[in-house]
């Protein structure tokens, strides 16, 4: 077995490891079985586990999410795929009203151990209805856990934790990272939900990032070190719920400066929640205002030149960091 | 076949539900129930008849008009009324309310207040039962109004193509909230006429005759357990109250209401009991037991402690807590 794996293959590897471990784990979604997924993130599952555990569905997002919920309430651990995260809107009732609320509103009578996994994010020129980063949609709903890995190893580790979780988890797989290779973790690799990582330590400012914005932030940090002698600390949140504010506040305590890089639009973006907590609880730690580099508040355009205008880039993050250090 | 003794039991369950709904109404008018209620008086035979045809480990999913479904699966009048009255002893610990009565320990997996949302859930529970090989089936009760929402159609199609052991049971009370269902639906039988589009037979039955309901659901359940896949039953029925607490239902023609009140599930069951030779005294005893049970339930619910405010912060997550950040 190779020592490296792509983010794309890590999705199927993470699911397969859990399906081998627990016969209650099943998969459902559009084109995930014999076709092995439109993003090839379910390669090998149908062949290894067969049609009883890997189910092809019609294009029926409400049926997918609702059936996963009913199955989760009755003894299975379904992993449901919603092909593009934009399509979560087609079954938003289940993510907003049903899955996160049923345990609470029944006074704890039921649990919903399921994973809704979905291909998220832009940078590939798919236009306004196939490119959005919508982690912030899920963040508006108490009762959902939210994972959004930035590396292949975290895909495997967070997938294990998500599938083993007795709570519903929305699992965002970033389309722009699918081809990226990283080390293949061995053994029972589990990354606890709600634990941020610090892929690059530094003392001059904190850059908080998630999924695709982690490599963007790391590239900006390289450039800042080389060009300006500025040492940025990059915090990869890995999850939005649970949100590891301890890690963010500890980092800000060292650096006194906070830059948040998020792919969802500035309006209503997840960075606003992080910023408000730092304003409430970390005001005395700061030597400069909190800054956010987020997507512009327009629908995502098609052309690369236009899309680059809208979503965070290494240039935008570098410039924002330079301004923050100069403040 | 349902014999005299079993039918008397079903009658008593329906009488209990009828009186519980009346108590819910009265408690609301007395200011002891807040929010809203969607009472099922008049529709008892669908829930009670269907439940009589099910195994105790089968799964039931219901709607915000679901008091009768919870009680037909074993929820007590006391825990239901306590829930409506925001009491700590409520069936959902006062976190659900009238629209979300649930008795998971009896396979009654919830009452859902987004129209049609629970049909895919029932398909999923049926899928789970099929994979686990338990012989269980799932039943989704839903109203006529749900037949015009996408989840209904997605669920029927999925259940059909996966040949799932699920029964879709429409309680057609002829009104989607305030509007006659016929005025907003392209076919005469809103559920049954759609079934053939998914390769299913749609059966229309008298939903006010508990025997008819029990027999139809028994057939559908047996088919589901034998691997015959899903069924759709459209049960005609009628609600005695308005859509919700604030609705006096003035949009319903007087002669229509009168006709349905003469076709009351309790009267129909009483006639059947009489035909089976059950003495009137036995029926009267069932009625008085139901009355006493509901009176005791009202007293107990009134005397129960209010919900503890700390309950607001429990049961979000499986660990019992509500923490979303460090």
Automatic annotation (TrEMBL), chain A:
Domain Transketolase-like pyrimidine-binding: residue ranges: 5-180
Cofactor: thiamine diphosphate
CDD domains from the UniProt entry: TPP_PYR_E1-PDHc-beta_like
Pfam families: Transket_pyr, Transketolase_C
Matching InterPro entries: THDP-binding, Transketo_C/PFOR_II, Transketolase-like_Pyr-bd, Transketolase_C
UniProt KW keywords: Oxidoreductase, Thiamine pyrophosphate
Molecular function in Gene Ontology: magnesium ion binding; oxidoreductase activity
Coiled coil: none
Name of the protein in its database record: Alpha-ketoacid dehydrogenase subunit beta
């Amino acid at each position: 077995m190779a020592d490296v794996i792509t983010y794309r293959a890590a999705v199927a590897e993470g699911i397969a490891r859990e399906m081998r471990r627990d016969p209650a784990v099943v998969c459902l979604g559009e084109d995930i079985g014999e076709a092995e997924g439109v993003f090839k993130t379910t390669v090998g599952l149908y062949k290894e586990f067969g049609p009883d555990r890997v189910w092809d569905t019609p294009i029926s997002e409400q049926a997918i999410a609702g059936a996963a919920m009913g199955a989760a309430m009755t003894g299975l651990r379904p992993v449901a795929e919603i092909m593009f995260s934009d399509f979560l809107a087609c079954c938003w009732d289940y993510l907003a009203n049903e899955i996160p609320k049923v345990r609470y509103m029944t006074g704890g009578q039921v649990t919903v151990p399921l994973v809704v996994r979905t291909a998220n994010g832009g940078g590939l020129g798919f236009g306004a209805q196939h490119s959005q980063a919508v982690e912030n949609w899920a963040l508006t709903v108490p009762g959902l856990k939210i994972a959004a890995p930035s590396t292949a190893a975290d895909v495997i580790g967070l997938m294990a934790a998500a599938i083993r979780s007795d709570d519903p988890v929305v699992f965002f797989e970033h389309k722009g990272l699918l081809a990226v290779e990283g080390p293949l973790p061995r053994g029972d690799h589990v990354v606890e939900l709600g634990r941020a990582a610090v892929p690059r330590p530094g003392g001059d400012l904190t850059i908080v990032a998630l999924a695709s914005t982690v490599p963007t932030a790391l590239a900006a940090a390289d450039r800042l070190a080389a060009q300006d002698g500025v040492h940025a600390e990059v915090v990869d949140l890995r999850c939005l719920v649970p949100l590891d504010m301890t890690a963010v506040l500890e980092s800000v305590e060292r650096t006194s400066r906070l830059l948040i890089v998020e792919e969802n639009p500035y309006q209503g973006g997840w960075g606003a929640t992080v910023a408000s907590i730092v304003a409430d609880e970390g005001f005395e730690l700061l030597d400069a205002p909190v800054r956010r580099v987020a997507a512009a508040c327009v629908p995502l355009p098609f052309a690369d030149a236009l899309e680059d205008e809208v979503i965070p880039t290494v240039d935008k993050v570098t410039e924002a960091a330079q301004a923050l250090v100069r403040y | 076949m349902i014999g005299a003794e079993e039918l008397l039991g079903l009658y008593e369950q329906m009488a209990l539900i009828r009186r519980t709904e009346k108590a819910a109404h009265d408690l609301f008018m007395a200011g002891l129930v807040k929010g809203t209620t969607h009472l099922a008086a008049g529709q008892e035979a669908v829930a009670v008849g269907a439940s009589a045809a099910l195994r105790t480990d089968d799964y039931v999913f219901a709607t915000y008009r679901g008091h009768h479904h919870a009680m037909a699966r074993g929820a007590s009048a006391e825990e239901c009324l306590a829930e409506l009255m925001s009491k700590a002893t409520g069936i959902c610990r006062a976190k659900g309310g009238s629209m979300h009565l649930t008795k998971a320990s009896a396979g009654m997996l919830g009452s859902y207040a987004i129209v049609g949302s629970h049909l895919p859930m029932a398909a999923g529970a049926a899928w789970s039962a099929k994979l686990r090989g338990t012989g269980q089936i799932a039943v989704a009760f839903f109203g006529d109004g749900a037949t015009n929402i996408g989840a209904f159609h997605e669920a029927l199609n999925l259940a059909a193509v996966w040949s799932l052991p699920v029964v879709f049971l429409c309680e057609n009370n002829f009104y989607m909230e305030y509007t006659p269902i016929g005025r907003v639906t392209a076919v005469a039988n809103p559920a049954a006429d759609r079934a053939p589009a998914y390769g299913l037979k749609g059966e229309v039955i008298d939903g006010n005759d508990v025997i008819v309901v029990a027999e139809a659901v028994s057939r559908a359940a047996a088919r589901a357990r034998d691997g015959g896949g899903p069924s759709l039953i459209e049960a005609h029925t009628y609600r005695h109250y308005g859509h919700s607490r604030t609705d006096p239902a003035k949009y319903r023609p007087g002669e229509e209401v009168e006709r349905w009140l003469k076709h009351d599930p309790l009267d129909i069951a009483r006639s059947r009991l009489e035909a089976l030779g059950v003495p009137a005294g036995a029926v009267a005893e069932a009625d008085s037991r139901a009355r006493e049970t509901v009176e005791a339930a009202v007293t107990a619910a009134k005397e129960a402690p209010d919900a503890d405010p700390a309950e607001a912060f429990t049961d979000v997550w499986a660990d019992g807590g509500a923490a979303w950040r460090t």
